[in-house]
Every structure is written in structure tokens, then in C-alpha cells.
Input
Amino acid sequence: MGMTTRSRFEVIVHTFVFDRGRMLLLRRANTGFLDGNYSLPGGHVEAGEEVATAAAREVAEEARIEVLEIEPCIVMPYGDGVDFLFEARRWRGTPEIGEPDRCDDLLWAKPDRLPEKTAPFIEKALELRRKGIWYHQFG
Output
């Protein structure tokens, strides 16, 4: 006994990557969370890592593109954590699946024509981005 239970607070990053009016989406697979849904490149911030650095790292790992300039966009706290959404203002490379064990499809979608199965927060995030609202309590 004698163990204390610590609550865990998740810090997650996601990045909008746009090209000619379309946004990059990856379909989650084998992650245990929202599998089968399209989402933005993203993931957990590592201990001691700067949030924007984590966002750029996740884009490189998941989509194999290099973010040259990244800008904070939206902060969305939820029950047990917070999502930081960024926008890649400049990037280079050709997107491809970088983690086939966690992603089984990659596509470009128009923001007003998202795939049927898209992570629930994305539509809200796009609305907030459109309205210039940077903070929203989600869920």
C-alpha cells in the first residue's frame, strides 16, 4: 500500500497544415483512441519539450514534412488535459504516412468538406480559427 494516486494531465499538440485551401488529415489506427477517424498531425508533448517544438516534431514524425514556421492558433482545455492547436505557416516536403503502425490513410480535405469520420474537435477548431477565437473550453 502507501501508493498515492496522481492525476494525469495530458498536454496534446495538433497542427493545421494547409495547401491550396485544403488541410492535411491522417486516419488514426491501432492507437486505442478515435481509431478510424481522421485527425490533424499531433500527439503528446514530451517532458521538458516546448509546445511549438512538439507540434513541429509530431508533423515531421507523422507526415514526414518539415515545418519551417509555426504559429499558435487555438488553446482548447478539456476534462483531463489541454489541446494546443498550431498552424504550419510555412512547410516543405511531400506528406506521407510516417507512422504506419498508428495511421492507415492520409488525405487532403477542404475544411467545409471533411470526411464523415473526423475527430470531433476538428470542426469546432476550424470554426474557432475562422472566427479568430483562440480559447475554448471543449467538451
Observations:
- The radius of gyration is 15 Å.
- Residues 51-63 form the longest helix (13 residues).
